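Explain this protein:
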Amino acid sequence: MKKVILVCAMTAAIISCKNEDKKPPVIGTNENGEELVVNETGDTVVYTPPVKEDNVELDEEEKEDVAFEKDADGSFHFKFNLEKGEKYPFKIVTNATNVQSNGKESATLTQESTTELEYQVKDITEEGFVMDVQYKRFAEKMSDGTTSVSFDTNGAEPKEDAAKQRWKFNKAIIGNSFNMTIDEHGKVQDISNLFKVRDKVKTEMKSDLEPEQLNMLDEFLNAALSDEAMKQMFEESLAYYPKKPVKKGDTWSINNSEGNAKSDINYTFDGINNGVATIKISGTSSGSDSQTDPNGSGVKIFRSLEGKVNGTAHVDQKTGWVKNAVMNKEETMRMTQQLNDQKINLSSTSKSTTKIN
């Protein structure tokens, strides 16, 4: 009997819901074109569709994962939200102009360099995201005002000897990959298999170089394709978010020092609009040192460095991957060479714009 009553109650509820959702007959429209119906009391009124109530708060399982998640107090905390199997592009293009002067004469060098990588998430573990990083493209253009050298690994082998060697070298890197593990905040935890890339380049270039040139190539590869170089490029471009929650207008800093050189970079969270987080960037760099020529000439060398940087980064709210970023940098290095009462003053001023993705 109880089952019968329960079934009847459920049926009545369903019928009641259907009746509530059923639209009454339209008897006409008013001067605004709105539909008119007769309500339960017999009055002619403007038809208003019933509003279905939705749950405002979703269960944690139903919430969409995002990299920038909003807290109850309006602040946002960040963690990467990358998907297993997905590929994430990384393209960095730098245009730089460098002017060198000895006080009497000056020389200008312009350079444009392009590096393209692809990060694919192979696994997600307790340590973070395990990624396969593949080299996709290198391109470069250089000019000193009288001669120019350029190459692109997506293009044909250049005819000029200087460009040809650089093209072969970079072409040997393309298609190779190494492994990188980052934590949820983007800090690099581990890098492996880069030595395989270096070894392949040396093998392919061996027939074109003399033993002394091979040694120089080995030194260059150990610096340019080192674990530290790849770690630095990733973290400076993609992993500067704080672990603490931030609100719009909040600023945090990253300070680095090496020897007598230091840099202070400030980041300001400028809010989220249409699924894109904006971060303003500004900072300075400085340093100085002195030494005596190690070759025994007695020449004393004094150097100083001053620089500033500013830019903006736009970051995908869902994944945390940079959508686009622009950084402008100015740097001046001064050097004085002194032997007894004789002095030579040299300077190097560079301006560069770096664009990511």
Summary: Confidence is low (pLDDT under 50) at residues 1-20, 51-63. The chain has three domains: 2-46, 84-95+105-239, 244-357. The CA atoms of residues 315 and 323 lie 5 Å apart.
